[in-house]
């Protein structure tokens, strides 16, 4: 039987993350994985260094280390990711929520806050919801307001995950529909939505960053036409579904701000502007239907 204490595993982690290499996993992946495997509060890594892991805990830890070294992200091993202070189930059918996407949620809430108060029910559409992180975070914040949220995704597996996340985060005001963008939405005489949001695939198919994102669904990451094909479709169709004065907010790549603003302007949006992410890069463009 191998004897492995938390202290020894911490030394092992230090060795694993010692080398200088670009594609190295961040050391918190290994420590967070250790915390997950031993199922103790994170503080145990400091206060309980003599804790002796069982053989099965050691085997599970090592198995996860190998997977992470093969490029599988921590979130797919633990099956969960924090976003907007909520906990989301994720798996290989969903993108792992990024902190930068919180900028999109924040901007939409800011916009809602400055609108004149109206008593009638408002509707928001999230296109390509994946784990549901955007729709569910907004639903959570708007729980006591009069908002109905519709979230669509092409993948039935992703919708299963999103539906689980709505239940686990206690939000009831989200309806999930399987659809390729707007396709399965009913066409009504009047536009149906006050807000449309999306974090669509936007990475250029030839972008070298894709090589580091092999574990995540490529259909959620990359799009033709320099990554702009899906954004273009979403922007061009948005005016059919958005009420007058309604908001469109789309996440995009750091170098796509100009192109996305042009798409918004070409479709007749006004107050078009781009907001930067926490790293200072262009990330979210917003505009209103005239
Ligand atoms: N922001 C993600 C990344 O660069 C990509 C998300 C997306 O394509 N929607 O890793």
TrEMBL record:
Its EC number is 2.1.1.297. It holds the Pfam family Methyltransf_31. Keywords: Methyltransferase, S-adenosyl-L-methionine, Transferase. GO terms for biological process: methylation. Residues 34-79 form the Release factor glutamine methyltransferase N-terminal domain. Methylates the class 1 translation termination release factors RF1/PrfA and RF2/PrfB on the glutamine residue of the universally conserved GGQ motif. HAMAP family: RF_methyltr_PrmC. This is Release factor glutamine methyltransferase. It comes from Psychrobacter nivimaris. The lineage of its organism: Bacteria, Pseudomonadati, Pseudomonadota, Gammaproteobacteria, Moraxellales.
